[in-house]
Amino acid sequence: MARSPNATLVAAASVCWLSAAVAELPPVPVPAENPITEEKRVLGKILFWDEQLSSDNSVACGTCHLPASGGADPRSARHPGTDPGTIDDVRGSPGIAALDSHGRPTEHPLFGFDRQVTTRLSLSNFGSLWAGEAFWDGSAAGEFRDPLTGEVAIATGGALENQALTALSNEAEMAKYGRTWQELAAKLARATPLGVASDLPDDVAAALRDSRAYPELFADAFGDPAITPVRIAFAIASYERTLVPDQTAWDRYEAGDSGAMGEAELYGWQAMQDFQCDRCHEPPLFTNNDYFNIGLRRADYDPGRQGVTGDPEDAGEVRTPSLRNVGLRPRFMHTGEFQTLGAAIGFYRTGAVLAERDLIPGGGNYAFNMSTVTEGDIHAFLENALTDPRVRDERFPFDRPTLRTERDADDALAPVAPRDLRAAGEGASLRLSWQAPADNTGVVDYVLYRDGSVIALLTQTTFLDTDPPPSSSVTYTLLARDAAQNESPPARFTISRRQ
Ligand code: HEC
Ligand code: HEC
Q1: For the CA of 361, the nearest atom of ligand 2
Q2: Using CA atoms, how far apart are residues 353 and 369, in angstroms rounded to an integer?
Q3: Which of 39-43, 124-128, 412-416 has the least mean pLDDT?
Q4: How far apart are CA 482 and CA 468, in angstroms?
Q5: Domain total in the chain
Q6: Ligand 1: which residues within 6 Å by Cβ?
Q7: Which atom of ligand 2 is nearest to the CA of 382?
């Protein structure tokens, strides 16, 4: 929060931003408890892009955080807030459709059987690398505790680790109701890593040579094959910390290449300093990671930082988003209300002045009297000078697999049913096996029900049920699904057992 002029920022403002001293991005802070290793980074990349981390195999972390979209989500959907069609509506990201604790579709009061939508716009995961706290409101703080034991796993600097577990257990984003960490670990232990994705990047394909499975990847990264929530978070955060978008025209200019930025970009950058945009969008991160209410809408629609601190002074404040790669983003502000970068910049010109709006730290009031020419220059600067081409083109380290939801599927043509489903005793367990549908084209995964509950989502054609109920008869139902999650007719098998 920064309502009153801030002494440090005033002092900092006298530094010449064009000096080489501020040019380079500082090293990404890494918590002592989770040093980056290559094995952890690759495992984290696989986990980040694996849609099997969601309860319905359709949403990866990356689904809502695509590099080519500046780390945000090219899709967008309306969250109606409390009353649809009014100013409290938000443009968020579609997650999974609501699933009950048995993994079955369940009707959601707002979204029915459709995908649920997040209550804020997806933030670039790049911006949070240097922040002590993640999320628009900073609710993912630096102390990271093991959700199984409550023990502190990272004392400070673990916001990314915290954030990763939040998404995995969020019922709108990735999790069915009541999902347990044991369920997720068991699912990953039997999954083919990235089994529902395609076009794997080279480093990922190399790590997955010889059909390596998750337990082996966890052993490579952590010394033994145990899959735990802490290790999942450690690996994902390690990967995120290597995604540093530092090859922009602005970086080259600051490093001494005076031709890196064109005339409009240079004017735009000068204008942003004149208007003191850089007090909040402070180089070289292009954020000061502090919280402000710039007056987009009344704080009662979203308390923002106040929801974390409880302090009414913080009402409606959100963390300043980094402007690196902002030109790639499909929507803007925590509400997602602007669809173009021009409209987001234009907000500062027209600026509906709400009473609760914060001042510019050290700079006092907003007095943005922008000409359209200046607005255009700022636009040019943000779009051209702050975009890292590796991010835009999804080149290493920003490369990624193709997701299931991005692949073509013929909506009109659901897969046909799997064949020869059978179950046979194997000690106290039951071994299920089946054949892919005769017309195998387009089958991506199988949903296996036991007596009405989803017990597994599988890419292979066999499953060992280690926990069959003691009842005398058990019915298994199996559906094949294509990339778009169209379901085949069910195959059923009932096994009767002597008690
Ligand atoms: C359904 C879409 C969706 C999925 C899936 C998703 N996120 Fe996000 N992510 C969001 C939204 C929306 C926000 C902003 C939420 C907020 O701040 O209130 C966000 C925020 C973040 C941030 C904070 C960035 C910052 O600057 O504070 C990080 C990091 C992040 N997500 C990483 C992940 C990881 C890792 C996963 C997978 C474990 C994941 N996300 C899954 C939508 C998603
Ligand atoms: C007082 C601090 C502050 C100042 C000064 C400021 N901004 Fe911002 N800016 C923010 C915050 C906070 C947000 C997010 C607001 C929200 O979502 O409610 C933001 C959002 C943005 C966005 C949208 C980014 C995105 O990813 O959604 C752009 C573009 C932007 N600002 C450009 C500018 C320009 C250009 C100026 C100067 C004319 C400026 N800002 C001045 C704090 C500031």
Answers
A1: 1
A2: 14
A3: 124-128
A4: 28
A5: 3
A6: 48, 59, 61, 63-65, 92-93, 95, 118, 120, 122-123, 125, 127-128, 134-136, 160, 163-164, 167-168, 173-174, 236
A7: 29
Q: CATH number of the domain that 467 lies in?
A: 2.60.40.10
Ligand located closest to 237 CA: 1
Pair 108, 174 in one domain: yes
pLDDT at residue 338 is higher than 60: yes
- Least Cα distance to 136 among 93, 83, 193 occurs for 93
Q: Report the distance separating Cα 193 and Cα 52, nearest Å.
A: 8
* Straight-line distance from the first to the last Cα atom of the chain, in angstroms, rounded to the nearest whole number: 65
Model's pTM, two decimal places?
0.93
Give the range of the structural domain holding residue 314, as residue numbers without chain letter. Answer: 249-387
Q: Is the CB of 333 under 6 A from ligand 2?
A: yes
Ligand 2 pocket check for 40: Cβ under 6 Å: no
Q: Among 137-146, 226-235, 322-331, 351-360, which stretch is predicted with the lowest mean pLDDT? A: 351-360
Looking from the CA of residue 168, the nearest atom of ligand 1 is 38
| Residue 258, CA distances (Å) to 22, 204, 241 in order | 16, 38, 29
CA 374, CA 264: separation in Å to the nearest integer? 9
Say how many Å lie between the CA of residue 48 and the centre of ligand 1: 11
Beta strands 115-117 and 491-496, pairing class: unpaired
The string of pLDDT tens digits covering residues 230-241 is 999 999 999 999
